[in-house]
Amino acid sequence: MRDLVLLIVVGWCFLQAFRRPWIGIMCWTWLSIMNPHQLSWRMSTMPLAAAIGGATLIGLFISKDRRDYSTSRESIVLMMFMAWMCITLPFSILFDESYEWWKRVMKIDLMILVSLVLLHSKRHMMLLAWVLVFSIGFFGVKGGVFTLATGGSYKVWGPANTYIEGNNEIALAIVVVIPLMRFLQMQMQAKWAKVTMTCCMVAMAMAALGSHSRGALLAIAAMGLVLWWRGKNKIVGAIVMVVVAVALLSVMPAEWWQRMNTIKTYEEDASAMGRINAWWMAFNLAKDRFFGGGFYIWTGSIFQMYAPDPTDPHAAHSIYFMVLGEQGFIGLFLFLTLFTMAFFTAGTLRTQGRERPQTQWLSDLGGMLQVSLAGYAVGGAFLSLSYWDLPYNLVILAVVGKRWLDRKEWQREAEEPLIYWPEFLKKRFEKKKAIPPP
């Protein structure tokens, strides 16, 4: 049954992508972030994202939908980063393996650029936020309920065969999405909707703790600090955060506390020392090779060449050292520049959006994007998620929001429904609405 439902949804999006390619962007993001086909029985190996991406690219050129090819500083830096990865590819130590990863990263970044061309309205930004929240919230809320039911005795894991399969990765994704949930909650009017979203955010936080990820704990702390700083009533906000934190932490078992305490004694923890060994390897490699080592360097043979302990190969476990080792110092500079610019662009939305009632929602979005980016910056220091879509979608929201604000779209953009109904459903609803009551 789930396969049939998924096939119908993806099939409808595929057809709509030719006429309205922004719908293809939403579906691509959903498939790429959530990977719902990995939850199906027979569609896990089907190239659904590729089909949607292809239809969206065709729709980009043949549809009559509005397109915006203007550039921003973030899009220019992203294109420079993509160009640099193309330059470094021939210098990869293990070219064949690096080439496979390069193709995957280029597809993701290309669709990010296409998104910047196709998305332009408030409806687009709100829908993109909802897609991101639903895609990760599905696993986060479920993981939070699981953690509460088991007393935190088992780890929360992400969907298999995805970027966020590991407990550390799904935890960081959850941390990044919680502020977007708060943004959507700030736009809600119904009390029941706000209460429901609060429960979902608490469950998400519980799932992040239930992952037993030390990086996630630090990311939650950083996110909470920025969220408190952005709040209007800091005293009440501090009290609420302390009460929620105490309630969540009281559920966690003794083994969770023992693992978190290793943050203070990382010298005695084999996993932590393995990460530091990988970081030194990446630094030594970048010093020796101007173009980096390519996308596939976390192997025993390369550790023997550059690591302090050549017998202990590890994954990067850091977005910063991952880019440094793979793309060199220039690649790291471009990577940091991109997200730093996005952070300050979000800050501009936060300050300028509050100047008028029509743009207050944009101020809320900018503030929460800064909270999400802070969580990614801190949690990413311990996780290998440098090229995954989700953080780049935060950049999309910041760039499109700034463009919307600069062009004073609120003066001419009519209120549009958040959901685009198929024509046959819309006609049916309109027909029912036209029938007078008895």
From TrEMBL:
Q: Name one Pfam family in it.
A: DUF5935
The record's annotation in InterPro entries points to:
CHP03097O-antigen_lig-rel, DUF5935, O-antigen_ligase-rel_domated, WaaL-like
GO molecular function (one): ligase activity
Instruction: List membrane-spanning regions.
Output: 43-63, 75-95, 101-120, 127-150, 170-188, 200-229, 235-254, 290-307, 327-349, 361-384
In this chain the DUF5935 domain maps to: 1-186
List the PANTHER family: LIPOPOLYSACCHARIDE BIOSYNTHESIS PROTEIN PA4999-RELATED, TEICHURONIC ACID BIOSYNTHESIS PROTEIN TUAE
Locations listed in the record: Membrane
Which species does this protein come from?
Answer: Roseateles asaccharophilus
Q: How does it sit in the membrane?
A: Multi-pass membrane protein
Main localization category: membrane
Q: What protein name applies here?
A: O-glycosylation ligase (Exosortase A-associated)
Which keywords appear in this protein's UniProt record, sorted alphabetically?
Ligase, Membrane, Transmembrane, Transmembrane helix
